[in-house]
Structures are given as structure tokens and as C-alpha cells.
Amino acid sequence: MASAAEQLASNLNFGAFSKATELKKRLWFTLGALIVYRLGTYIPLPGIDPIILRDIFSQQAGGILGMFNMFAGGALGRMTIFALNIMPYISASIIMQLMTSLSPSMAQLKKEGETGRKKINQYTRYGTVIIALFQSYGIAVGLEGMTASQGSAVIDPGAFFRFTTVVTLVGGTIFLMWLGEQITARGVGNGISLIIFAGIVAELPSALAATLELGRTGALSTLFIAALLIGAVGVIYGIVFVERSQRKLIVQYPKRQVGNKMFGGESSHLPLKINTSGVIPLIFASSILLMPITLINFTANSGPGFLTTVAAFLGRGQPAYLLMYATFIAFFAFFYTSVVFNPADTADNLKKYGGFIPGIRPGKNTADYLNYVLTRLTVVGAAYLVLIAILPELLIARFSVPFFFGGTSLLIVVSVTLDTVAQVQSHLLAHQYEGLVKKSRLRGRR
To answer: How far is CA 104 from CA 98, 108, 110, 200, in A?
Structure first.
């Protein structure tokens, strides 16, 4: 068995990839879906003057709108049909996950397996439509109030413009939600994460060009730009190191005799990641902060005077914004970890199959120990996420560096890349196992 495993590991090369027909189909489907998404980020909303809108957006791009534009892959700055991107779906997912933790009926629905999961997904879709309706109407009203020296950003404001904007933006969000589900089912990787990933990566060249242009004009020194690029590489290295770090708990299985044969007695390990929640806390925290502050920025010039004060108070790099951002990240780090890993269920499964952690009694003691270890790891993971997110925020606010060099964008890119590569490797392993099984059957027939 060991030699077979070694053979599998050595066969994970280009030759194995070229023979994995199913994997190639999945990769081509994923690539085609992402191309469709990128094409949609260049189809503008009807009734918008793109030149005036570009001038208005350039004045606010250094604020919260710049980060929203990063998640939207530049679609917000161009005000296209995908301007809302996938953020309403993420907001609806947050609400549904909170409901499954707080509502007994929703928690019971979650335990019903595939049937319950389908119902929860359906409720999430309904919530996405409702949230997208409110957000798209707010954007439509905000666009009508946006003016520059050349005139209004909306060519013909009124009820018809609001109606078409709402229908277009909601339709774009629903299409992206469907596209993400198709990528997950028929492609490689998590579809929603890959859509955000594609938007960030596609805008990286223009962000690098903008940074070099700041150096050419003298706004940033050459030494600072070099330090920024070296720092980005260092952040990527740190992200990869932490994301691949694990705490391995030894699990022992007792020996048992069945007939004349002895089974068990081997030891294994239970891997616990430092950052169990992954990139989800950053996306969740950003999605909660983005839309309220964006609507405030849209209406600050035409709405009540206190909105201007609130917008300044929650501006990019301001202490209130940083505090709220860090608080939300830490909260969702603990919350999502509790969603994806249940110590009580894990302890029950270990007890069911006779496994135990040396020195810890099975059952409740094991659950308490797992919760103790996981809490300590999550404290480190939450601190790591806050550090990754907040320090670049200060750099962006102070030196107007493009958001695509921030810790949030780099973490999303690196995490999604690692996850996608792991899924590709799992498909290759499955293909290799299928080949070995077919060979063994042919030899058995002989």
C-alpha cells in the first residue's frame, strides 16, 4: 500500500494532468465562466454618462468606494450591470448562518442533511434578491444625486431610470449567484470566491501601473514603491505560511479482535488549522461595512447634514472605521469557526469509532479539550486576520496606495489559489485511483 501511495504521489505531473479528461473539462468550464463574468463588468448601466461618472468616482476612489470597486472587479467604477457583484449573496449568507445558530427551527433544518441544505440555499437566494432590491434602489437614487462640473451622471433621471437600474443590477447579481453555483458544481473551486478572486486579479495590472505612475509623478518615492512590492511579497509568504499551518492532535484507536484477526491499534492525527475560518471573516466584515457607508457617501452631499459627519467619521483609515472593521473580523473569525467545526460532534464521532486523544477521557472531556485548543488557535487566527487587514489599511489611507495591494485582497487571492490547487490535486488523485482500480480489475480477470 505504501508503494502504491508513493507511486500516486510521483505520478501527479503534467502527464497525469493530460490524461485527466474530466478535470480538463472542469477547468475549461471554470475559465469560460470567469471570462463571461469579466465581460459583464464592462457592460454599462443604461442612462449613465460614463465620462462624468468616471470623474466623480475618481474623486471618491480613495475612500470606501475604492474597496467596494476592488471586490466588484472594477464594475462599480464603471457602473456596469455587475456593479453590486456578489455582495448581496454574501450578506444573505451571513444572515442565514446567523439564523441557523440562533433559531432552533433553522438549526434543525441544517441537521436534515441534503434536504435541509437545499432549503437553506433556497432561503439564501430569496434573501439575496431582497437585499439586492434595496441596494440597487439606493444606488439608483444616489446616482441621480451625483453631479460634476460637466453635469449630472444620469442622462435622464426619474422613475424609469430607477426602475431600469434596479432591474439591471438585481438581474446581474442573480446571474452571478447562479454562475458561482455552476462553477462550484461543474468547475473547480468555490464559485463565489473565484468570482471575487477573478475581479481582484484582473485589476492588479492597472493597480501596478497606477502605483508606478505615482512614482513617475513624484507622489511616491522609488524607495517606497520598492519597499511596497517587497512588503507585498512578504505578506504573501506570511499568508501561505499561516494558511498551511496546523495543530495536529494525536488520536489513538484501540486494538480489537474480530475472529482470528486483530484490527486497530494504529494512531492518527486530527488537524486543526490556525485560521479555520479562512478568508470568510474579511469578506463578511467588508460586506457589512461597505453598503451602509457607500450609501452614506452617495447621499452625503444631497442628504441631511449629519450624513456628512457620519461619512467623515467612518472614512477610510479613520479610528472608528478601523475599530469596527477589526471587531467584525474577530467576531466572524470565531463565529464561522464554530459553524465549520463542532467540538461536541467531533468528540462523539471519535467515541463512536473507538478513537480517543491520549490523556483525555472520551465524550464531554474530549469536547471540552477540543474547544479549548480550538479557541486558542482561533485567537491567534483572528489576530492574524486583523493584522493582515488593518496594517495595509493604514498604508492605503496614508499614501493612497491602490487597494489591490492591501492585505485583504492578497489574502483572498492566496487563499483561493491554495484552495483551487488543492481541489485540482484531489481530482488528479481520484483519476489516478480510478486508473489503478481499472488495472487491478483487468489483472483479476486474467
So the answer is: 11, 6, 10, 38
Spacing of C-alpha 398 from chain mean position? 26
Q: Which of 103, 102, 69, 108 is nearest to 87 (CA)?
A: 69
Architecture of domain 219-446: Orthogonal Bundle (1.10)
Provide the residue ranges of all domains of the chain, joining segments of one domain with +: 23-186, 219-446
Q: Compare 37 and 433 and report the one with higher pLDDT.
A: 37
- The model carries a pTM of 0.77
Q: Which of 261, 315, 282 is nearest to 200 (CA)?
A: 282
Fold entry, domain 23-186:
Preprotein translocase SecY subunit (1.10.3370)
Question: How far is Cα 141 from Cα 87, in angstroms, rounded to an integer?
Answer: 19
Quote the cell numbers at residue 29.
Answer: 468550464
When pLDDT is averaged across residues 89-97 and rounded to a whole number, the result is 84
Looking only at the bridges linking them, the beta strands covering 246-252 and 151-152 are unpaired
Angle between the 280-299 and 87-102 helix axes, to the nearest 10 degrees?
A: 120
Q: Residues 171-211: pLDDT tens digits? A: 999 999 999 999 988 888 888 888 988 888 887 777 777 77
